[in-house]
Design goal:
- The protein has 4 helices and 5 strands; from the N terminus they run ββαβαβαβα.
- With 118 residues, it is an alpha/beta fold.
- The protein has a 5-stranded mixed β-sheet with strand order 1-2-3-4-5.
- The longest helix has 16 residues.
- It comes from Actinokineospora bangkokensis.
- GO terms for molecular function: anti-sigma factor antagonist activity.
- This is Anti-sigma factor antagonist.
Length: 118
């Protein structure tokens, strides 16, 4: 699922819903990210967490940050959790500069996020 500049692949793995995002997230691609996040939320059962793997994202604009906050609130409101994966670079910087690292749970790898409990 996605656009020419952004793809989102959603699958269940290791007891969580894993959404792998590739490309750049900006105003033009944010709707594709929203569709992918909605698909991930719909695939959840019970309080299953969603792991959002942004390791292959090269740019994360404010439109993407806003979606992360919205999705985090949605999942926690439903008793779930959002685990964000980024290996650093511009995506982690965008999360840190906006102080979202104080709100979101960020992991350095998909394996770490998949292995997390709670």
């Amino acid at each position: 699922m996605g656009s020419e500049l952004l793809t989102v692949e959603v699958a269940e793995q290791a007891g969580v819903v894993l959404a792998r995002v590739r490309g750049e997230v900006d105003m033009g691609t944010a709707p594709a990210l929203r569709r992918g996040l909605d698909e991930a939320a719909e695939q959840r059962t019970g309080e299953q967490p969603v792991v959002l793997d942004l390791s292959s994202v090269g740019f994360l604009a404010s439109a993407g940050l806003a979606l992360l906050v919205e999705f985090h609130r949605r999942l926690t409101g439903e008793g779930g959790a959002l685990r964000v994966v980024t290996q650093g670079g511009p995506v982690l910087r965008a999360i840190q500069v906006s102080s979202l690292d104080k709100v979101l749970t960020v992991y350095p790898s998909a394996d770490a996020a998949l292995a997390a409990h709670g």
